[in-house]
Amino acid sequence: MEFRDAILLLHPAIAVLVVFPFIGVVVNRALQTRQRRLEIKMTGKSKIPAVVGQEHVQLGRWLTGAVVGIVLLALANDIFSHILDHQLWMTALFQVIFIALLFAATIASIVLLYKAKERKWRAIFATLTGMGLVLLGCQDGVYRKTDQWYISHYYYGLTAAFLMIFSLAILPEIYKDRSNFWRKIHITLNCIALLIFMGQGITGTRSLLEVPLSWQEHYIQQLYEQKCDTRNCTIQAPSLPQKPL
Ligand code: HEM
Ligand code: HEM
After folding, report:
1. Which residue segment(s) compose the domain that 109 sits in?
2. Which of 49, 76, 150, 233 could bridge across to 228 with cysteines, CB 3.0–4.6 Å?
């Protein structure tokens, strides 16, 4: 296995080893937090310790960082592989610098979102982080599968990242609001996020079968008889000529 293949595997490996176990614990604590709140509302007491809410929030904050982190990692692999393959710094130096600055600005925005207290700043940094991900996702080399957007690992991955960023941005609102409006919004959106995460497990595993290792690219280019971009050059079912009856 070549070095760039090992880099390709970093994203799925971190997703499996870090992000999905985190999701398991965050969801477990979420259910306990809800059960505790409802028991106290109905009977005035609960056997579930009060700490489950704090644990959900602390791990949820980590989860947001981890999801945004693996999305940036996958996008960086796609975009920089494309830049290296086409030696873009020779022909489009400004574009390469712009992309590097975009990565830096997106990371800075999420760091500042973690630190921001005022509602206005949380909204601004959440928007900037989301915009950074969208702009990076639009770059050449990213395997978007737009013609099949409804089963695209890219589109759902970005949506999941937005939902995590939104959860982090509205965090203080959930506590402040007595009418539970933000709490209900949070539950609804994150139930959707949970379904998307399950989908990511499936579409991501499919991506592992479709994105070729370095040594396979040559054969795929021959199969399609065209010069394809490294990452967009994927292993798909070849359309074989119809056999005459
Ligand atoms: C898969 C992801 C997640 C799911 C399914 C989820 C679901 C839930 C549920 C069911 C509750 C309990 C609501 C209730 O009391 O009825 C809750 C509470 C909460 N969640 Fe999440 N959540 C997720 C991720 C996050 C993230 C990423 C954050 C923050 C960055 C977060 C912040 C909070 C906060 C602040 C509360 C209120 C906790 C309390 O009352 O002590 N959640 N969540
Ligand atoms: C939290 C879950 C996940 C999110 C948010 C996520 C998100 C993304 C995004 C946005 C991309 C870039 C677009 C693309 O190249 O398709 C990507 C690429 C990829 N993902 Fe995931 N992913 C997740 C989990 C997984 C899992 C569990 C696997 C496999 C076991 C996986 C395998 C891949 C592969 C092979 C690529 C292509 C990498 C590349 O070209 O650099 N992902 N992912």
Report:
1. 3-224
2. 233
